[in-house]
Amino acid sequence: MRSLAVAALAAGVALFVAGPTAGGPAQCARNVANGLRTVGAADQLITVEAASYRTTYAAFRLWRRDGRGCWRVVAGPWTARLGVNGIADRRREGDGTTPTGSYGIGRTMYGNARNPGVRYRYRRVVCGDWWVEDPASPAYNTFQHVACGRRPPFRTNPPGMWQDPVAYRYLAVIEFNMRPVVPGRGSAIFLHASKGRPTVGCVSLPVGQLVTTLRWLDPAKRPRIVIGTRATFRRL
């Protein structure tokens, strides 16, 4: 067992006691993914593992479920950036944190650039495309298009999606605060391209690694993204 632990650490995979995976065998490799209980029927998984709640960096890994029901690493660890105020179990709108927890990936991916070859429905954003961050709006935490140049019927928090061609070159939606949507809990949590600094609450990657991730994700495999520290993951 000690040799197994040493080998896994050498591979950069965080360890903790793992139980059986959903629908899988009782014995899987001891790694960060096989210890999770909130991934349901997912066959693809992203883990975003922060060393602490205050850090703005995280280890980003891609995983697939094998034929025995065990999680195996596909890529990573890569360095992701998090919110300027770290991560939080109880995020609130505008607090600069990235929410911890286990989430699905939205059904549509977006970007200011052409579709890079994703398997999801893809919308190339245009003038007037917004993600609503106004807690008072009935459209809170949803994508909305308003005619270009027209004042939106909700309070805006610029830039609009089309106005940030660097971060929003490509993005996937992390389904935080969506079922149900709770006003003020937080909105517009994306996996997007890095600007080389902390985000306002999203998860970001260098664009090459982001494109690799977005192309790999397959809606038919019900992917999940899990965000937190190793201690957080023990609760998920």
The strands making up the biggest β-sheet line up spatially as 3-2-1-14-6
Q: What is the total tally of β strands?
A: 14
The secondary-structure element order is HEEEEEEEEEEEEEHEH
Rounded radius of gyration (Å): 18 Å
User: Percentage of helical residues?
Assistant: 10-25%
User: Sheet with the most strands?
Assistant: 5 strands, mixed
Helices, by number, come to 3
Overall pLDDT level: 90
Unreliable stretches, pLDDT < 50, 5 or more residues? Answer: 1-25
Q: Give the overall shape, derived from the CA principal axes.
A: globular
What separation lies between the terminal Cα atoms?
24 Å
Class from secondary-structure proportions: mainly beta
β-strand percent reads 25-35%
Question: How would you portray this structure in words?
Answer:
The chain is mainly β. It has helices spanning 2-10, 207-216, 230-235, and strands at 44-49, 57-65, 71-81, 87-88, 98-99, 101-104, 108-111, 121-124, 129-131, 143-145, 171-173, 190-193, 203-205, 224-228. The protein has a five-stranded mixed β-sheet with strand order 3-2-1-14-6. Strand 1 and strand 2 form a beta hairpin. 40% of the residues are buried. The model is unreliable at 1-25 (pLDDT under 50).
